[in-house]
Amino acid sequence: MKFFNSKSNYLKWIWNISYSVIGLLILLPNTSFAQTTSGASSTISSGDTAWVLVSAALVMLMTPALGLFYGGMVRQKNVLSTILQSFFLLAAISVQWVIIGYSLAFSPGNDFIGGLSWAFLRGAGVPNPSAPTIPGLAFVMFQCMFAAITPALISGSFAERIQFKGFVFFSLLWTTLVYDPICHWVWGGGIFEKMGALDFAGGTVVHMSSGFSALVLALLLGSRIGYGKNPMIPHDLTLVLTGASLLWFGWFGFNAGSALGANALAANAFMTTNTAAAVAALTWCCLEALHKDKASSLGAASGAVAGLVAITPACGYVDIVGAILIGIVASLVCYNAILLKLRFKYDDSLDAFGIHGIGGTWGALATGLFATQWVNSHGNNGLFYGNPHQFLVQLKTVAATALYATVMTLILFWIVDKTVGMRVSAKEEEIGLDLSQHGEEAYRY
User: Fold this and answer.
1) Reduced to 3 states, what is the DSSP secondary structure of residue 314?
2) Which of 29, 62, 348, 373 is deepest in the core (most CB within 10 A)?
3) Alpha-carbon gap, residue 204 to 207, rounded angstroms
């Protein structure tokens, strides 16, 4: 039985949730930020703080940029709904993060999940142990933007056929039960951080988790009506290129900001990020020219994003040679992953798995190959620098991330589909999600 099938039930549900949240806030102990921020030590660096705050703003820009990137690739009748999905998650996950997400990801807990001691940011003003030279709230804000964009990446797999209410509930549950635990495993003192896994800015935490979940959702939701028979070409490639350019720009905050300071490590991450993206874009254009006789704007944008995805876990651990090789292979594996999608005929609408799942997997494994302590003394050498153990650790991290994201997405899909519903009706899909889900049109001629 579906919930919310009447307006009165929907309003009652909203009222009950609002009443519960207000009651919880009243019952919470008084938590003054003046108390927590007073613990900030004299080691706080104004330069590091400024860089991380700017980086947080750059990463924030990536979520609406992703909306533009995805929005240009769908048909005209679905462009607003696609952009809104990214925009809405920026708001929704920002709230989820300060209430519970940050605590689950970074507060003291066990090897698999943090606790609730930092819920509602209690104690968050104190510098995080992984970022001692910046205020705690600067670290919270930076990580918040990572949490916001990750579920938005998944939206590329189910574009043009998902109910908005199903999308909202699934995304909030997924962030809480998939993203937050994986973040804790790798960055919050969990099992893989203790094992020595290297993920500088989110190859497993962000791209693999979202990419493999995207594949599951694409398969469970089924193909769009007419997929494989009717043309479903991008309606506005200028939006795609604009979105890709803004993503590239924001990615400097994503990767170089993960140094958590204005230092040589940030400079290395900045340079390797740009190099890998540039090489991957050129490689993709060459592949298209060889395969289709023409290089396309969509291909150039896809190649750049594939390179950015793949360099994300490695950017603070590899040198320029490593970045170039990572960028070349990223385009090779992602390009062929998209060709395999066409062969197996599953409808990953905007290639979220082909770019983020496959690109993130390659990047995480490549970190175990090309990492060198010459770049970052806090990381281990990789296989090609005499340390095969690091590659095995990366392999374990990749396998666990893919398995956990896949299984949890299966479970969460079933729960949400049986309650609020996930897929729109055939009639709503034919009309387009802009009108059927939001009562709006992007263009009026």
Assistant:
1) coil
2) 62
3) 6
Note whether 174 and 89 are within 8 A (CB).
Answer: no
Q: What is the pLDDT of residue 74?
A: 98
Q: Is 121:98 a contact under the CB 8 Å cutoff? A: yes
- Whole-angstrom distance, CA of residue 49 vs CA of residue 27: 33
Which of the 8 DSSP states describes residue 189? S
pLDDT at residue number 377: 87
Name the residue among 92, 98, 203 with its Cα closest to residue 141. Answer: 98
Domain residues of the chain, as ranges?
Answer: 49-435
Ramachandran sector of residue 226 (left: φ over 0; alpha: ψ -120 to 50; beta: rest): left
pTM of model > 0.90 = yes
Q: Which two tokens stand for residue 395?
A: 């392999």
DSSP state of 164: H
- List the structure tokens of 115: 């606790």
The answer to whether 314 touches 326, Cβ cutoff 8 Å, is yes
Top pLDDT among 45 and 31 is at 45
Residue 124 binned pLDDT confidence (cut-offs 50, 70, 90): confident
The pLDDT of residue 6? 52
Least confident of 106-110, 120-124, 143-147, 333-337: 120-124
The CA-based angle 78-79-83, given to 5 degrees, is 120
Rounded CA gap, 123 and 189, in Å? 17
> Helix H segments across 155-236?
164-174, 180-187, 191-195, 209-221
CB 78 within 8 A of CB 239: no
Q: Which CATH number fits domain 49-435: 3.40.50.300, 1.20.1560.10, 1.10.3720.10, 1.10.3430.10?
A: 1.10.3430.10
Which pLDDT tens digit goes with each residue over 78-87?
999 999 999 9
Q: pLDDT tens for residues 222-251? A: 999 999 899 899 999 999 999 999 999 999
What span, in angstroms and rounded, lies between the C-alpha atoms of 93 and 99?
Answer: 10
